[in-house]
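User: Um, what's this?
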Amino acid sequence: MSTLAIFDMDETLIRCDSSTLWLHYLVEKGLAPATMLEVESNMMQAYHAGTLSMQTYMDYTLSPLAGKSVAEVDAWAEDYVARIVPHQVYAQGQAQVQWHKDQNHALLIISATAEFIVRKIAASFGVNDVIAIDLQTQDVLYTGATRGVLSFREGKVERLQHWLSVQGHTLAGSYGYSDSLNDLPLLEAVEKPHVVNPSAKLQAIVAQRQWPQLAWQ
C-alpha cells in the first residue's frame, strides 16, 4: 500500500480560507445578506484562537443554502472556484503535492470546509480523495444542516480513521501538512508532520517538538 500524504486545504495549500471567500461570493451575488460578513469574521477570530464551535459556524454560514438545489449550488461553486481560487494557490504547496505524486504516494485532502467546495479545489490540485464536512440534503435540496462527524480538530482524525479502514490504507510512513493549531490532533496522528506558516502559538509547540516548518508564499 502506498505511503499516504495528507494535506489540510485552507491556508495550507491555498493562502485563504475558502469558506470565508465563499460567503463573500454569495454576498456579492446577492445570495446572502451582507450582515453575515461581520459575524463570520468574528467567528474566524475564534477559529484562529482555537475556540470556535464548528457546528455553530456551519449552521450559520450554511443558512443561505437552505432550500437551494444541489445542482444550483454546484454551479455557483464551479464559478467561485474557477474565478477566485486559482489566484490563492501557494506555488510551494502545488509543488509539494507534485513531489508526492512523483513518489507514487497516495494523496488525501482533509478540510473543515463544505465538501462541495473542497472536492472542486482538490480537483484543481489533481487530488481525488477528500474528507470534508458533509451537508444534509432532502429531495435534492440542501437543508442548511451538516451530516455526520465534522472534519474539525479531533473529528478530522475520527473521519480519517474511518477512511483508512474503508480504503485499506495505514498511517505507516505518512506525511501531514497543516497551518492550523486546530489540526494538532491530525499532525500528531501522522508519522511525518509538517507545519506551514504557523501562528506564534503553534510555532512554540512546533519548535518544542522539532517538527519541520515550511514558509510558503
Summary: The radius of gyration is 17 Å. The chain is about 45% helix and 20% strand.
